[in-house]
Amino acid sequence: MADWTFLTNHAHVLLCVFQDPSMRLRDIAVEVGITERAAQRIIAELVADGYLTRQRDGRRNSYQLYPDLPLRHPLERHHHIGELLRAVGSIDRV
């Protein structure tokens, strides 16, 4: 695998949630190539900043994504996360 990628782990986690809102943390971690603890931290940051909400569904969590929120970096702030997800995601859900 390459030493770097164009998207951050946060973007990769968002893509996983975008494609499957009930994906388990363990599966997100495997898909992104990070530890489960790192995936948990990223999800917590995305929830804290309002990009996701987490709902308990039995023993599992499901997530709701807010595609109209802006990207965080000043160079991209005029774009929304839904635009990014539509551009790089394989499923048109937003």
Kindly provide the radius of gyration, computed on alpha-carbon positions and rounded to a whole number of angstroms: 13 Å
Q: Provide the β-strand percentage band.
A: 5-15%
Overall geometry? globular
Helix fraction, binned, reads 40-55%
Distance between the termini: 29 Å
How many E strands?
2
Quick structural overview:
By secondary structure, this protein is α+β, with helices and mostly antiparallel strands. Helix content is 43%, strand content 13%.
Structural descriptors:
94 residues, two-stranded antiparallel ribbon, 43% helix, alpha+beta, 13% strand
Topology:
Elements: H1 9-19, H2 25-32, H3 36-48, E1 52-57, E2 60-65, H4 81-88
Helix pairs in contact: 1-2, 2-3
Structure, explained:
The protein has 94 residues and is α+β, with helices and mostly antiparallel strands. It is built from 4 helices and 2 strands; from the N terminus they run αααββα. Helix 1 crosses helix 2 and helix 2 packs across helix 3 (36-48). The protein starts with 8 loop residues before the first helix and ends in a 6-residue tail after the last helix.
